[in-house]
Amino acid sequence: MTLSTDDLHELIRLLEQHPEWRAELRRLVLTEELLGLPGLTRELAGIVREMARSQQQGLERLERVEVTQARLAEALTTLAEAQRRTEERLDALTVRVDALAARLDALAVRMDELAEAQRHTEERLQQLTARVDALAARVDELAEAQRRTEERLEQLATQVSVLADTVQRMADDLGRLKGWSLEERARRKAHALFRSLIRRPRLVSEEQFAQLVDDAQDQGTLSPKEADRLIEADVVVRGQQPDDRSEVYLIAEVSWGIGVKDVQRARERATLARRIGLPAQPVVVGTWVTPEAERLIQHDGTLVLLIRPDDWAA
């Protein structure tokens, strides 16, 4: 039976409509070998793929081996360099150890010498210790003697302090007595004493001067405290100025030794006397003047009358 082209096209259409008929058609048309060819092809493809994977893995392993080999070669080179440096350091250390050994030998000899010197030092220390012990005992004896001496000195210091206080009180009393004596003699001999400063000197009695001060206080010219300070003037002498014979009052501060306070008191009282209308002049009278008082006198114009102690005997 001969198939036409139309029959072939119809067969193809039917196979397209019925795919399950294709396998049956292949079984009838093809031999057993041809029918098994697709499966064999698939099996071969799987084997080829497996061989390709194995080959790829082999290549990858080969690359890793080559990398490892390169690293090992580099490591061997590094180890060789390190070994070379180690040997150089060992050579240097050997030289240093030899030098240290020589120094240790020298130190051993020196230690023996020091040990001998230490023995001699210990012997000397023992001798010095014995001497120090003897000196310590002597120092203890001296300390005890010093303590007794200090006790006696404290007793003497107490006695000297008492004597010093007594002498100071006596000196103060003597100074006051001298001052009072000078003040009294200045009143008694005012005419003879103050002739060197003014003409016709006459002593102003305490009653007369007190009357002048009281009148000034009553008039309000002086306050009570100012009146008290003015009335305490040691000596007041009335007379005439040598040049123009004008009236003058000498407000005198009398002291055995003239100090700054004496000058200040004389100046203050003369100022108060001028406030109540008296032509007053400050005067200090004594046997000597301190340097400080002398400098003050040179600047404020206070008169000074120095008398030798012998001049007061009469």
From TrEMBL:
Keywords: Coiled coil. Gene3D superfamilies: Designed single chain three-helix bundle. Residues 65-159 form a coiled coil. This is Chromosome partition protein Smc. It comes from Thermorudis peleae. The lineage of its organism: Bacteria, Pseudomonadati, Thermomicrobiota, Thermomicrobia, Thermomicrobia incertae sedis.
